[in-house]
Amino acid sequence: MTATTAGVGSGIASGALLLADISGYTGFLDAVTIAHHDDLLGGDTVPAAYPLISTLLDGIIDRLTPPFALVKLEGDAVFMSGALDDTLPRGTELLDCLAACYAGFRDRLGTARELWSCQCDACVRVATLDLKFVLHAGSYVIHSVGGGRELAGPDVVIAHRLLKNRAAEVLGTRAYALVTRPAMDRLDIPDGGSTALTEPLEGDRSMAAQAFRLG
Predict the structure, then answer these.
(1) How far is it, in rounded angstroms, from Cα 95 to Cα 16?
(2) Omega into 182 within 30° of 0, i.e. cis?
(3) How many other C-beta atoms are found inside a 10 Å radius of the C-beta of residue 8?
(4) How far apart are CA 44 and CA 23, in angstroms?
(5) Which pTM does this prediction carry?
(6) Alpha helix (H) residue ranges in the chain
(7) How far apart are CA 214 and CA 83, in angstroms?
C-alpha cells in the first residue's frame, strides 16, 4: 500500500478522525416507532421524527464539510476525516468550528420543536436530543468497499470506542467535545477551559483526553 493524504485515494493515511453523535437518538426513535406503529404499518404517514433526524444529520454534515470530509453515516453518528494540512483549522479555530456546528444543531432542533404537531409521550422526547463530538488523530487504512470509501485501523477503533466515555458525567452535560491527547498535540489545541480525562480502552490500555463543554 502507498501512503496518501486523508480523504484522497486509497492506501495508508494520517489525519483527524471526527465523530459527531446525536445523544438520545436510539431511545427517541425507538419510542416513536412504538407510539406510531400503526402509522408505519399502514405506510400512509411518516412520523415527523424521521425527517427531523435526517435534517439534523444534514445540518451536521453541512457545517463540517469542509474542512472535514464525510466518511459515512453510522445511524446516530456522522463519521468524518480531515487532512493534517492547511485545509484543517488549528487550535481554538477548530474548537470554534465544532461549537458552530453545535449551535446550528440546536437552532434546527429548536425550530423543529416550534413546528412540532404531535405531543405524544414519545414525540416530546425530542427535547432530550443533544450532540457530542469525539476528535482523535492518527493513522488509518483507506480502502474501497462497494464503491464507497472505508477507513479502518486501530485509531479508527479508538475513536469509535471513545463514544462511550465519562465526559457527560464529569461535565454535567451531554453537549461536549472529547479531544484525545494525540489530536490536542497534532492540531495545536489549547486545553484552557477543558477537563482532563483518562478513558479506558481494550485491556490495560487507556487514552488521555480533554473534555470541552459546548453550549
Answers:
(1) 13
(2) no
(3) 13
(4) 29
(5) 0.88
(6) 25-35, 37-42, 49-64, 91-115, 154-161, 167-171, 181-186
(7) 24
Is residue 187, in this structure, part of any structural domain at all? no
- pLDDT tens-digit map of 2-43: 344 444 456 888 999 999 999 988 888 888 878 777 666 666
Q: Which helix or strand (DSSP H or E) is residue 200 part of?
A: strand 195-200
| Number of domain units in the chain | 1
Query: Considering the domain boundaries, does residue 135 fall inside one?
Result: yes
CATH of the domain at 63: 3.30.70.1230
Question: What pLDDT does 33 receive?
Answer: 79
* DSSP codes joined into one string, 69-88: EEEEEETTEEEEEEESSTTS
Let me know if residue 188 belongs to a domain.
Answer: no
**Residue 209 near residue 197, CB atoms below 8 Å:** yes
DSSP 45: -
In sequence order, the β-bridge partners of residue 211 are 178, 195
Task: Tell me which residue range forms the domain holding 18.
Answer: 11-151
139 in any annotated domain = yes
Q: For residue range 71-91, what is the model confidence (pLDDT) as tens digits? A: 999 988 999 999 998 899 999
User: In whole numbers, what is the pLDDT of the chain averaged over residues?
Assistant: 87
Task: Assign 195 to helix, strand or coil.
Answer: strand
26: number of Cβ within 10 Å: 11
